[in-house]
């Protein structure tokens, strides 16, 4: 192992790692709201709206993220959608993860015993109040866990943005391997950074999970 | 904006060839990752720590880093020593990646087989290894089918990433056609539709397989 | 009594067996001999060590001290190591049928395959002959129609009858029953008892750990009451169940015969 080289390239990789983190966080943030919207759409009485949401989720989950990314980045301009690479990564990442996340949110809400709804409604709570003060606190723990898993998927997915020339961690690693011919050193270093990022996320999730566990009867 | 799908039709045979290459890769990777994953799981559970520790590290490493990074590492790493075609690197990379994920499943399901099963087999006179082979592993395998199915569906979608190292699957096969026709939107829509179709068939297959094996769990 | 049964030929010999789990001594020097064709029942409260004793005979528990012999051959062999012991114990176990409280049928195999797996793989019996043997055994336990059904479709009583057939397929010299009916619904107990009764009539040597006092009294040649890792009392079942000498036995029976 060439340790001098590893020290030399570390600043470059750290800088690239920040781009990875930036894209992932923004995707997660926007993705969460889109996911909530998808869950909301699925609660409509009017069936075509529900079908739209189900169809969207099915298509997004049924096609590769990579192809979605290429479609929007290279195909977008022909329908008037011009995005710079990083924005494209964030947008596609958000719309992609939202499909998975809406399923996770729905699953955690449905995991709450239906007796809880009945008890709440019998006390005179309205639908929204029941959701906010009875259902969501109880489903929070499970929701946080599954969103955490998706956050990790998002971080790993963000590596694909390198294909559209965003200088994030994987792109930088590939470029450095190409210029230094030291694949093992560069791989070790960049893998290590992914490990740190992912473990940091896991740590945050675990803390939030424990906090949320107070409200569940699990 | 107006769409023109004629170039897609012109180059459709090229795309189908890409589907063929992708399917071939997927079948080999599925076989390699399931058989390999099972071996890794069995060895890491039953063989001594000196052997199992590196295997657990391997599972962990491949599960915590992105596929593309692993592919680049193999592509450039192996490329330094020997000249091998991209398709082999792709198969190895994707194979190792999902081998780790499958091994993780098998570790959990092997451990979920109750000790009573082990004892019943031993009491009949089967040895330790024979019990693992005839009793534990088949039961763990049946229990793994739903999650293995999920992984294989993810894996098929991930074959698209292999285009990054030059494996001539669907996305890669379209690149030339796109560069001469200037119709990326049309091509990628059709590619997405093809993946979606494959995905639907795989999900149907998974449902069928789960139903067919449920009573043996 | 049949003259064959009176041959005093020991099939299972348990000599001064000790066994501890950590600091807890569960077997404190047990002695017992089961002669050929005889049926011995062991009763006692949970935690008395009776299941541990039975499992020790099959070497599912490793005893700390003492000896266990099957048909004159020592089961526990502290002198043997690794593969040598593995071969030894596999051979020994082929001569012992074990029936578990929770059946432990193999869910991935059909009923008939559950029964024939061991003869096919361990005795290299050709599949056709193994199937004939399996069908014969299923007939004996009254389940011939369930040959190609998977265990998950069977009731508890049916599962246990298959488990008995599975143990019999290796033509064991003795049968060990570890609370074979304890996990069953009351209405399913009888069908399993009937199968065990028929084995008794065929003069199978049996060691039975049970909660079924009535069954133990009717079927056994010898009965043993264990408590706290020791044998409190052992005698003919008629005496043990109606007129035991020890107060601990009396208390135990009073509780269990009334409920």
From TrEMBL, chain A:
Transmembrane regions: 16-41, 53-73, 147-167, 187-209
Topology versus the membrane: Multi-pass membrane protein
Pfam families: BPD_transp_1
Keywords: Amino-acid transport, Cell membrane, Membrane, Transmembrane, Transmembrane helix, Transport
Keyword Transmembrane (UniProt): yes
PROSITE patterns: ABC_TM1
Protein location: Cell inner membrane; Cell membrane
One Gene Ontology biological process: amino acid transport
A GO term, aspect molecular function: transmembrane transporter activity
GO terms for cellular component: ATP-binding cassette (ABC) transporter complex
InterPro entries, sorted: AA_ABC_transptr_permease_3TM, ArtM/GltK/GlnP/TcyL/YhdX-like, MetI-like, MetI-like_sf
Family: Belongs to the binding-protein-dependent transport system permease family. HisMQ subfamily.
Protein name (database record): Amino acid ABC transporter membrane protein 1, PAAT family
Originating organism: Marinomonas polaris DSM 16579
TrEMBL record, chain B:
A Pfam family annotated for this UniProt entry: BPD_transp_1
Cited PANTHER family: L-CYSTINE TRANSPORT SYSTEM PERMEASE PROTEIN TCYL, MEMBRANE COMPONENT OF AMINO ACID ABC TRANSPORTER
Database matches in PROSITE patterns: ABC_TM1
GO molecular function: transmembrane transporter activity
Keyword Transmembrane helix in annotation: yes
Domain named ABC transmembrane type-1: residues: 19-206
SUPFAM superfamilies found in the cross-reference section: MetI-like
Family affiliation: Belongs to the binding-protein-dependent transport system permease family. HisMQ subfamily.
UniProt topology in membrane: Multi-pass membrane protein
The protein's name in its UniProt record: Amino acid ABC transporter membrane protein 2, PAAT family
Entry GO CC: ATP-binding cassette (ABC) transporter complex
Database matches in CDD domains: TM_PBP2
InterPro entries registered for this protein in UniProt: AA_ABC_transptr_permease_3TM, ArtM/GltK/GlnP/TcyL/YhdX-like, MetI-like, MetI-like_sf
GO BP of this protein: amino acid transport
Transmembrane segments: 20-45, 57-75, 81-103, 124-142, 187-209
Keywords assigned: Amino-acid transport, Cell membrane, Membrane, Transmembrane, Transmembrane helix, Transport
Subcellular localization: Cell inner membrane; Cell membrane
Keyword Transmembrane helix carried by entry: yes
TrEMBL record, chain C:
Major location (coarse): membrane
Xref: InterPro entries: AAA+_ATPase (IPR003593), ABC_ATPase_HisP-typ (IPR030679), ABC_transporter-like_ATP-bd (IPR003439), ABC_transporter-like_CS (IPR017871), MetN_ABC_transporter-like (IPR050086), P-loop_NTPase (IPR027417)
Domain ABC transporter, first and last residues per copy: 12-253
Pfam families (UniProt xref): ABC_tran
Membrane topology: Peripheral membrane protein
Highest taxon above the source species: Bacteria
ATP-binding in keyword set: yes
Subcellular location: Cell inner membrane
GO (cellular component) term, any one: plasma membrane
Keyword Magnesium: no
A GO molecular-function descriptor: ATP hydrolysis activity
UniProt keyword annotations, A-Z: Amino-acid transport, ATP-binding, Cell membrane, Membrane, Nucleotide-binding, Transport
Cross-referenced PANTHER family: AMINO ACID IMPORT ATP-BINDING PROTEIN, GLUTAMATE_ASPARTATE IMPORT ATP-BINDING PROTEIN GLTL
Family of the protein in this entry: Belongs to the ABC transporter superfamily.
Protein name in UniProt: Amino acid ABC transporter ATP-binding protein, PAAT family
Organism classification: Bacteria, Pseudomonadati, Pseudomonadota, Gammaproteobacteria, Oceanospirillales
């Amino acid at each position: 192992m060439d340790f001098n080289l590893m020290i030399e390239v570390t600043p470059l990789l750290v800088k690239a790692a920040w781009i990875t983190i930036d894209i992932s966080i923004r995707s997660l943030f926007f993705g969460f709201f889109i996911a909530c919207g998808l869950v909301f759409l699925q609660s409509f009485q009017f069936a075509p709206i529900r079908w739209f949401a189900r169809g969207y989720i099915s298509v997004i989950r049924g096609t590769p993220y990579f192809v979605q990314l290429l479609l929007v980045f290279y195909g977008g301009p022909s329908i008037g959608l011009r995005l710079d690479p990083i924005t494209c990564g964030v947008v596609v990442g958000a719309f992609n993860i939202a499909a998975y996340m809406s399923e996770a949110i729905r699953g955690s809400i449905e995991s709450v015993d239906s007796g809880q709804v009945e008890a709440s409604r019998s006390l005179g709570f309205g639908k929204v109040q029941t959701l906010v003060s009875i259902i969501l606190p109880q489903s929070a723990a499970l929701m946080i866990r599954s969103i955490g898993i998706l956050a990790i998927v998002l971080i790993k997915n963000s590596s694909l943005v390198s294909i559209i020339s965003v200088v994030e961690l994987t792109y930088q690693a590939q470029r450095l391997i190409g210029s230094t011919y030291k694949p093992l050193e560069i791989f070790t270093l960049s893998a290590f950074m992914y490990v740190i990022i992912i473990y940091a996320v896991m740590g945050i999730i675990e803390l939030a999970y424990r906090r949320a566990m107070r409200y569940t009867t699990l | 904006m107006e769409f023109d799908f004629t170039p897609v039709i012109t180059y459709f045979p090229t795309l189908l060839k890409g589907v063929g290459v992708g399917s071939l890769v997927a079948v080999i990777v599925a076989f390699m990752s399931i058989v390999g994953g099972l071996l890794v799981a069995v060895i890491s559970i039953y063989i001594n720590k000196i052997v199992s520790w590196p295997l657990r590290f391997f599972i962990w490493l491949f599960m915590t880093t992105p596929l593309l990074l692993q592919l680049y590492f193999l592509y450039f790493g192996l490329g330094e020593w020997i000249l091998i075609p991209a398709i082999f690197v792709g198969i190895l990379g994707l194979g190792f990646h999902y081998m780790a994920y499958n091994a993780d499943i098998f570790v959990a399901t092997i451990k979920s087989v109750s000790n009573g099963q082990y004892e019943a087999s031993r009491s009949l006179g089967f040895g330790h290894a024979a019990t693992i082979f005839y009793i534990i592993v088949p039961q763990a395998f049946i229990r793994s089918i739903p999650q293995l199915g999920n992984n294989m569906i993810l894996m098929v979608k991930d074959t698209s990433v292999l285009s990054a190292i030059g494996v001539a699957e669907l996305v890669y096969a379209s690149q030339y056609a796109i560069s001469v026709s200037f119709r990326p939107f049309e091509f990628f829509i059709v590619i997405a539709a093809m993946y979606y179709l494959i995905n639907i068939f795989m999900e149907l297959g998974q449902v069928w397989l789960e139903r067919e094996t449920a009573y043996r769990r | 009594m049949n003259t064959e049964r009176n041959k005093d030929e020991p099939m299972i010999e348990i000599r001064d067996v000790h066994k501890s789990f950590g600091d807890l001594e569960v077997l404190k020097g047990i002695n017992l001999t089961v002669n050929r064709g005889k049926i011995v029942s062991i009763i006692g409260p949970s935690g008395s060590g009776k299941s541990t004793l039975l499992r020790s005979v099959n070497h599912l528990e490793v005893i700390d001290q003492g000896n266990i012999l099957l048909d004159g051959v020592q089961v526990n062999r502290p002198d043997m190591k690794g593969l040598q012991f593995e071969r030894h114990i596999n051979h020994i176990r082929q001569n012992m049928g074990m029936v578990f409280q929770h059946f432990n049928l193999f869910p991935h195999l059909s009923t008939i395959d559950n029964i024939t797996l061991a003869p096919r793989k361990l005795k290299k019996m050709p599949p056709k002959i193994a199937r004939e043997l399996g069908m014969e055994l299923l007939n004996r336990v009254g389940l011939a129609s369930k040959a190609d059904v998977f265990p998950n479709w069977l009731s508890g009583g049916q599962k246990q009858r298959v488990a008995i057939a599975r143990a019999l397929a290796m033509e064991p010299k003795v049968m060990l029953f570890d609370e074979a009916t304890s996990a069953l619904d009351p209405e399913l107990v009888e069908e399993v008892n009937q199968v065990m009764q028929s084995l008794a009539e065929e003069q199978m040597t049996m060691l039975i750990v049970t909660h079924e006092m009535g069954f133990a009294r009717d079927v056994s040649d010898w009965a043993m009451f264990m408590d706290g890792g020791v044998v409190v009392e052992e005698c003919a079942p008629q005496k043990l169940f109606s007129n035991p000498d020890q107060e601990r036995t009396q208390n135990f029976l009073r509780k269990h015969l009334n409920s």
